[in-house]
Amino acid sequence: MDIKKIREDTPCGNIYMNHASTSVPPLPVTEAAQEYYRMIMKYGATSRQAEEMTACICGRAVQNMAEFLHADAEEIMFVPNGTVGIDMAARGLRFKKGQNILLDSMSFVSNAAPWIEAAGLYGLEIRYIPAVLPGYLDLEELEHLIDENTALISVTHAANSLGVLQEVEKIGELAQKYGIPYLVDAAGTMGAVSLDVKKIGCDFLTASGRKYLRGPSGTGILYVKKEMTEKLKGYVPAWNSGNWDYQRNEFTFHGDIRKLEFGEKNFPGIFGLSKAVEYIGEIGGMQDVEARIRKLTCYLFEKLKVIKGVRIIGPEDASCRCGTLGFVMAGKMCGEIAAYLNQNGVGMMGHHFFCPGVTELFGIEGTARLSVHYWNTEEEIDLVTELLENMQGESYGET
User: Under 8 Å CB-to-CB from 56, ≥6 apart: which residues?
Assistant: First the structure.
């Protein structure tokens, strides 16, 4: 992996370690998004040339994403963000009163709110899958929660405040064993770890494009297993989601994944997202990306754990994370740590990250979060941890 060339593609002026929120797209991605606007300026948005080029690039984008996830092209839908993808699944499933949903207790709010709303609409029960220290879902208890009325299992691949990878393939085996639809929120892992929907065994997978994949903001994907697509209700009656019979005054949704379309697409975003997938291949592929992120995560872990007063939240084994580390520091609020680092040119965050199950499990108010990517360097990590040492030294009156 040519880090020098990659850094040239990423002219970021700060030390940036907030990829779990929004990463920095490389220049080829921004150029791909701009390509759409250059095209419509040249030909006009509804010209034959522009429509043919748009259809070609969007078709390639679907194929790129399908190959990236080991899915089929007819199982991929581009969405504005991962939240919308989850909402599509929640509104599409045909629930019955008295059924229950098993929900990851460490989820971000976006993987909770759509199911809570569905529970209110259809008379469902939400059952939270408990987590145990040092930050894993309790799979034995998950199996105990399953009964004949379980309609869905929904989990987050890695909580955004921890970065701890959950055992999604084992959960997939349980879902298949009992014939239960299964959704994985991969917002924090797509682009950081290899994803294979067939190995995971999920019926749905959602993710945002702007995080570790380094795509444009306002982009995301929803994978729906073909057999599941046929069972879903349509999402929004629109010109591209079904057929309108004017004479009979009827609208019928398509039978395939097009039933989830909802009008105009974010073509510049799709152009850029497709290039983000291609860019990973150009710099070495997901295996190299994953190995580089794991190496930097372990390096950051070792540097953080020796700082006086720092407590890293989650497992001691840094290799089980997707690039994200959450920590607390004695005598400092997480927002105070973030403000100090931000003022010193480090992009990161300190927050509860809308994951109340995480803060409750560890007995904390929130975490200071550093999330590294393949284009970060050991030298940047050294500078960040030196800043933290200086900050803590000031607290202890050291000079």
Answer: none
pLDDT category, 398, cuts 50, 70, 90? low
Question: How many folded domains does the chain comprise?
Answer: 2
- Residue 244 has φ and ψ, to the nearest 5°, of -105, 120
Are residues 76 and 221 in contact, defined by beta-carbon separation less than 8 angstroms?
A: yes
CATH number of the domain encompassing residue 290: 3.90.1150.10
> Of 253, 282, 311, which residue is a domain's last?
282
Name the DSSP class of 320.
G
Domain with 347 in it: 3-23+285-395
Strands (E), 130-201: 131-132, 136-137, 150-156, 182-185
Q: How far apart are CA 212 and CA 208, in angstroms?
A: 9
**312 and 187 share one domain:** no
Is 16 in the same domain as 86? no
Query: How many whole angstroms separate alpha carbon 231 and alpha carbon 256?
Result: 10
- Residue 174: Cβ within 10 Å count: 18
Distance between CA atoms of 209 and 188, rounded to whole angstroms?
10
Q: Which two tokens stand for residue 62?
A: 């679907």
Are 323 and 241 members of one domain?
no
pLDDT per position as a tens digit, 260-301: 999 999 999 999 999 999 999 999 999 999 999 999 999 999
- 16 and 95 inside one domain: no
Q: What is the pTM of this model?
A: 0.96
The SS3 call for residue 329 is: strand
- Nearest partner of 203 among 118, 90, 67, 68, judged by Cα: 90
Which residue, 161, 153, 123, is CA-closest to 326? 161
